[in-house]
Amino acid sequence: MARSVPTFTGPVDGDELGVTLVHEHIFVTDPELDVNMPHPEWDEQVAIERAVASLTDLYARGVRTVVDLTVIGLGRDVRRAAEVASRVPVRIVAATGCYAASVLPPFFRLNGPGLVVDGPDPLVDLFAGDIEAGIAGTRVRAGMIKIASDGDGLTPDVSRVFAAAASAHLRTGVPITTHSDAAARGGIAQQDALAHLGVPLDRVVIGHSGDSLDLSYLRSLADRGSFLGFDRFGMEHVGRDADRIRMLLALLDAGYADRIVLSHDAAVFSRVTPPSWRAAHAPNWHMAHLFETVLPQLRDAGVDDVTLHQLMVVNPRRLLTGGA
Asked: What is d(CA 204, CA 75) in angstroms, rounded to the nearest whole number?
């Protein structure tokens, strides 16, 4: 039996995770802006009810687990998400980490080893504490570590986040997932950094790999052991689903079915791309899109149920548990 995975509502045996979406968000907010410049489309109770309806619908479509990668920098509110989790049949996995694709927030820039306020790195304390003790004083423990680099590459601040994530992974065994810049082949530097820090690359997802049209780049990432995140289905404003499907089929034909995970990077509410904008510019960017559109297209292209089970059940389980 695969080891258990922490969720908002308690640990779940790996063998019971079922169909899993490994890269989603319930709510993406900005607490400082929310106080000083409230968004006209945000109504907390309406958003909670919408999240409950959305996640309950996913259960009816066969989904059993959703990983919420909302971390520091994206407005994580564990208590708000816990209210949703308590009311839905799917299990939700929380994440720790820091979404800082170039520069850390001022507190972290000034606090840590050799900095103005010298002492232990608070990033390490945050990540490990979220995993071992619980997030923000709750009993909700994180089951994934989320980090990011973008067009600027591994800046000093980003490198520090990667080091903290590696430290937390080596201490706890919790896997790491990234935001990467596929166009710049950013996953290579991410793998180099994490491998140098001692992280086994088969415990890492190179996120947004599905945005790449470079098959040799994707194969090189997979050949080093990492999972490839085809995790932006429905995000037509950054890439066409037709291209994502074409690259996914090429990888499956090349024998990489055991190295790919599928998801949307969608949110029930995101302040960054609010509902009115999504309705106009990315109407298919929601957590049911795989089941409504993408998986049927894969079946029509000849992908069998065994392979889909590998992508949606087996690979997420291996990622989250470290088991077979």
From this structure: 23
313 CA to centre of own chain: 16
* Ordered domains of the chain (ranges, CATH): 4-321 (3.20.20.140)
List CB contacts of 320: < 8 A, sequence separation 6 or more: 5, 14, 17, 20, 22, 67, 93, 143, 144, 175
DSSP 305: H
Low pLDDT (below 70) residues in the chain: 1-2, 324
Distance (Å) of CA 270 to CA 236, 243, 267, 286, 300:
16, 25, 6, 12, 33
Residues 6-16: tens digit of each pLDDT: 999 999 999 99
Packing angle, helices 186-196 and 215-223, rounded to 10:
10
Q: CA separation (Å) from 91 to 46, 65, 196, 247, 263?
A: 21, 5, 34, 30, 16
How much is the pTM?
Answer: 0.97
Give the amino acid at 216.
S
